[in-house]
Amino acid sequence: MTVLLTQNLGANDAATPAAAATHRPIEGSVHSWDLSTGVDGPGSRFVTFLSGCPLTCLYCHNPDTWRMRDGKRTPVGAIVAEAAKYTRFIEAAGGGATISGGEPLLQPVFAGELLHRLKHELGLHTALDTSGFLGVRATDALLRDVDLVLLDIKSWDRATYRKVTGRPLQPTLDFARRLADRGQDVWVRFVLVPGLTDDPGNIEGVAAFAASLGNVSRVDVLPFHKLGEAKWQALGTPFALHDTPAPTAEEVGRAKAVFASHGLTAV
User: Fold this and answer.
1) Which site in 39, 93, 128, 265 is 20 to 30 Å from 219, CA atoms measured?
2) Cis, bond preceding 77 (omega within 30 deg of 0)
3) Residues 37, 45: contact at Cβ < 8 Å?
4) What are the backbone dihedrals phi and psi of residue 120, each rounded to the nearest 5 degrees, phi first?
5) What is the rounded distance in angstroms from the CA atom of residue 261 to the CA atom of residue 263?
6) Rounded CA gap, 109 and 101, in Å?
7) Residues 6+ apart with CB under 8 A from 205
8) Rg (CA), the chain
9) Are 98 and 124 in contact (CB under 8 A)?
10) pTM of the prediction?
11) 83 Cβ partners below 8 Å, 6+ apart?
């Protein structure tokens, strides 16, 4: 019962992870961890992928992270110890640590403790990769240990967003505004999918919203790809975008230009 209550602390909770340590689970459901460069935040990153996600995105390249029960129960300390092996390399490359998924905020207490220890014990720059759908679960204490939020805004058009994710858009927008009120550094990530998210009005909507926030330092326009299709097949689940082509370089360039026209740095 204690864990359940702690997992659902309100967004304005002021307790630090260290102060609440006796109430925190020492394990979470983890899919894997890896080193990456250029796609999960600045520099080279130690990336931890948590299991479990409330969204079912049509283009998801990690559908094997959807179910929390499929992850491995892992102590926070084991991940911190693994990350510690690479701190010199990470710091030399101007990187840090990123918590991704799945959806990290499905396990907010575990994610918060992990972010806290990576930041304060190892001194790493921290990033949270999230759809924002569960942003209400991110306490102020958790966000204080986040240097950068990688926020996926998958569509501006509400019907398209629900088609892509199976969920409503509004919680993500609410979380984005909360991050703006905090002055928290955000990179918006937008996946360009031909015939799905590439409508000019849809791109314009995401761009105008991101520009209105005042705290978005970068926009990643990510071209749709099918690198995760084999995982869908392995799970026995049809990949709905099997016949969807990747966007051309020209299409990606036009999308970036829309964001740039709003004064945003688009890469």
Assistant:
1) 93
2) no
3) yes
4) -95, -30
5) 5
6) 15
7) 156, 157
8) 18
9) no
10) 0.90
11) 33, 46, 48, 90, 97, 118, 122, 124
Instruction: Match 């955000």 to its residue by tokens.
Output: 186
Cα–Cα dist 49/163, whole Å: 24
* Angle, alpha carbons 131-180-51 (nearest 5°): 20
Q: What is the rounded (10 degree) CA torsion for 207, 211, 217, 222?
A: -10
CB-count exposure of residue 91 (10 Å: 0-12, 13-18, 19+): middle
Q: What angle do CA 17, 186, 60 make, to 5 degrees?
A: 90
Separation CA 235–CA 202 (nearest Å): 31
